# Entry
Amino acid sequence: MEHSTVKIEDVAREAGVSAMSVSRALRGVEGVSEATRARIVEIAERMGYAPSRLAGSLAQATSNLVTISVPTLFDAVFAEIIGGMRETLTHAGLETMIETSDYDPAREAAWVERMITWSPAAVVLSGTDHAPGTRALLRATGMPVMEVWDTAKDPIDLCVGIDHHVIGREMGAHLALLGYRNPAWIGITAGRDPRAEKRRAGLADAFAQVHARLIEIRSDAAPSFEAGYDGARAALRHDPRPDVLCFLNDHLAFGGMMGCEDAGLSVPADIGIAGFNGLNINNVLPRRLTTSVTPRALMGKTAARMLVAAIRGVRGETRVEMPVRVEPGQTTRPRLTSDRPAS
Amino acid sequence: MEHSTVKIEDVAREAGVSAMSVSRALRGVEGVSEATRARIVEIAERMGYAPSRLAGSLAQATSNLVTISVPTLFDAVFAEIIGGMRETLTHAGLETMIETSDYDPAREAAWVERMITWSPAAVVLSGTDHAPGTRALLRATGMPVMEVWDTAKDPIDLCVGIDHHVIGREMGAHLALLGYRNPAWIGITAGRDPRAEKRRAGLADAFAQVHARLIEIRSDAAPSFEAGYDGARAALRHDPRPDVLCFLNDHLAFGGMMGCEDAGLSVPADIGIAGFNGLNINNVLPRRLTTSVTPRALMGKTAARMLVAAIRGVRGETRVEMPVRVEPGQTTRPRLTSDRPAS
DNA sequence: TATCTTATTGTTATCGATAACACTGGCAAG
DNA sequence: CTTGCCAGTGTTATCGATAACAATAAGATA
# Structure
């Protein structure tokens, strides 16, 4: 009770000590005898004292706040990364503040400027592509910075992610090996999602090895089931008709599969479908999507652990690249030569 | 550049005025001539000055922070509510801090206590069921409090939501009218999601009107596609076999539909399926789910508008109840008497 | 001309904590 | 018996802003 009004001096007066002793006792810092500490803690608790973060952070010139920027919360991937981070961070007594940039580097940059005024303990960004200036600004502050979900040879500071280009290439190689030769990529407007573009480039590289060209279909819509559906319908109008559709992620892939079936095609007999991420919708589908499984929660957890260490001044590894595996499902299958339309 | 080090006195010195004038000028507060203000603003911008939120909030005893608690970010519903709020809040210069309580009132309560130490401008909670004490604590602080997603006759302060009991009843009435008489509810462990329990109670009420009893299947798992799948399989083992399955939400419903089909039943011929929320997966399904469409984004936007007004001291309406409509799909259909198993 | 406004600007105190330093008294070493 | 050290505690200054009040100058009023 009386939470909002009890301040450190009230506790000090009640305990018959100075404010400083209370501060030391509650933070578990050296400089108070165990007897006094116990008494102070008991009194503070009884009075319902909660230290003002504002005052504390101002005095210490740093807070217990970790600010996190993700493109969107509508994509389960980012929710899972955040979920993975949050447990570890909360456990370490850190609070999190989440921003959504809607895939806009300018918004991310503006947010970084605002957010710095809270003196956070650390900053987390999604991906490794940022507006010019963001990088320099963060480096200048000297606080721990974590980039998740993508990798960079030269991260701002710390980095935990996966190599999207390699993932795309591996999926492409897998599909090429199955015999697909008319692949299509279905994503969203170029430039909005740099990671997706890297995967697409990897796919294109792999198909180029077998002299196949990846056609590209992009929607202006948000990445969603509908975008996949519409994208698939658009792809089917292409001549020659693609023999495999590679989607931005599993949700688009599912939408796309529905689109193909609505168009009278059967999967995988008439056309192959490949997704990305291994989202949990896949666990209930009668035909599992061929996809790449990414360790989102683990990525978050690893990132959080590294951050906590960095905040405490321990510098270890700065760059972690996580493994991803192609998981063949029932939406693709070996292509017989006779299946292949003449090129 | 030099962001982190420029403080208000530096700007004041550069402009040849006092710190107070700079403060006034930048906040757009009365008390500086237009000429000086323009000059100060220009200089502050040039120097890259960003006021410390910590110091500012401490001095003003309130911040530009709106703290939001939701059960989870894995459910698109909450992501959409947050999305709807955020635009309006950001536009009003308010920052948001999001917490996930994992449907645990104790965690929510602990968070409220911590969060208050940041002197937020307002607090947003999900639902109207809270731990004892949370309500009193928030009322005592006097800050604007918004409860979203559910309604209460006597909210803590402000409230924007839907009446889950009524929604359940309307869906139940709709299904009863179609002739269903052996309904099953498939959700998660009782008590975890109070809103879902209200809908279930509403369903049960409506079916009771036609002397039908609602059986209940609950999973310990998180609300997900898989929980729906497993729940459906469990429901099908029930004797007499249910003729319609009512799910916690559309994602469970989709999983459940897959479960039914895996079990050799066809929807809606052999069994009906009803979901909740009108999630966007529904837009790509060959058979649209029968569901209740809820205005999540609008709810968020409305809540945010009311909050901004309250923060600025304008008190208007305090309680808004939003309309919800039952949207018949292709997963239910009129039941002929002959379809009905003898009771 | 003397006085009163009013607009503009500056000064000082304060928000609630913590850092840095100063002070005690008791005990061990010489 | 004195000195020195150290653990335990208090005092003062500071973090970076803003509220409250004080001061100034220019124009309005009588």
Remarks:
- DSSP finds twelve helices and twelve strands in chain B.
